[in-house]
Amino acid sequence: MDAPLIEVRSLKMYFPVGNNILGRRRQLKAVDDVSFDLYPGETFGLVGESGCGKTTVGRSLVRLYHPTGGQILYRGVDIAPLDEKAVMPYRRRMQMIFQDPYASLNPRMTVSSIIAEPMRLQGVAQDAIAARVAELVEQVGLKKDHMNRYPHEFSGGQRQRIGIARALAMHPEFVVCDEPISALDVSIQAQVINMLEELQDSMGMTYLFVSHDLSMVRHISHRVGVMYLGHLVELATVRELYSNMQHPYTQALMSAVPIADPDLAARSQRIVLQGDVPQPIDPPPGCPFASRCRYVKPVCREVLPEMREVAPGHLLACHL
Ligand code: SF4
User: Where are the domains of the chain?
Assistant: First the structure.
């Protein structure tokens, strides 16, 4: 296997949320001690319920956030502690496709200005920008006469294509796709996914694909990480994870995926989670899943399980 493009080591992203009644600072631990590698050309799916920290991981990797702790080694260089100026050269190599194509495009800018913006910010020459915009418009399946129109004149799928063209403008090596199809009609979701796959094949990019849609993640990813309450609890290749899931939370998550085959659906059993989800503000010690786990043991409430390899490339954080 190639050397990793990005090595994430004990990443922490905490947000201050005021003081408690004793005057102590309170922090929301959105991402707590997350480690994994991303290899060139792969798609790494990051799944979990809403609020588990997966989007925060993506935003931290492209340095939209300044991490509270840990390392983000980009081709061996730790970009986590870099200030805004020092991180600029890395920004052009890392981009993000946002969930909401309606909110992520400036309504007062034309399509060509939106796509050109990252190049302008990086000081690319005007004639090179014009040529690249024309190329990108074609690459994402838009027409030349779309270039001078405004975002409100387009459908959701077309707006997401504009967002993708903008993300690809600087030939990024790494793209965070943050729920890129969840705001789109089902009929056009497959088109956007196919386009992302084709672009990856032709440009050799690495994707972090953040999603709560497990069927889509299975389709597009090479490896998958499962997050719960700011922690990574299981990581494996897509084939290994979907056939040999070990973590009780992964099992519950997968059991909720609709099955098309009625016979298989009748034989499968949905695991309904009981118990409360702990607050990510001042979470209790031990396993983050302990309050909802049907296999919980006393040790689970005391000691945070560490990630360990249970099969080649299959990592699990569970005391079982
Ligand atoms: Fe359940 Fe304990 Fe495993 Fe956590 S460590 S998932 S509580 S068995």
Answer: 6-87+216-316
Ligand 1 centroid, distance to 54 Cα (angstroms): 20
Are residues 112 and 146 in contact, defined by beta-carbon separation less than 8 angstroms? no
Q: State the average pLDDT over residues 17-40.
A: 88
Report the distance separating Cα 248 and Cα 292, nearest Å: 9
Q: How far apart are CA 167 and CA 181, in angstroms?
A: 15
- What is the rounded distance in angstroms from the CA atom of residue 167 to the CA atom of residue 102? 15
Residues near 6 by beta carbon (within 8 Å), at least 6 away in sequence: 37, 38, 61, 72, 73, 74, 174, 206
Q: Give the mean pLDDT of 72-88.
A: 95
∠ at Cα 234 (302, 172), nearest 5°? 130
The fold for domain 6-87+216-316 equals Rossmann fold (3.40.50)
- What is the pLDDT at residue 266? 66
Residue 10 contacts residue 67 (beta carbons within 8 Å)? no
Work out which ligand 1 atom sits closest to the CA atom of 288: 4
Which residue minimizes the CA distance to atom 5 of ligand 1? 318
> Is the beta carbon of 287 within 6 A of some atom in ligand 1?
yes
119-150 pLDDT tens trace? 998 889 999 999 999 999 999 999 999 999 99
Q: What is the token pair recorded at 57? A: 């991981």
Give dist(CA 252, CA 118) in Å, integer.
41
CA of 248 from ligand 1 middle (Å) equals 7
CB-ligand 1 contact for 248 (6 Å cutoff): yes
> Whole-number mean pLDDT of the chain?
91
| CB 286 less than 6 A from any atom of ligand 1 | no
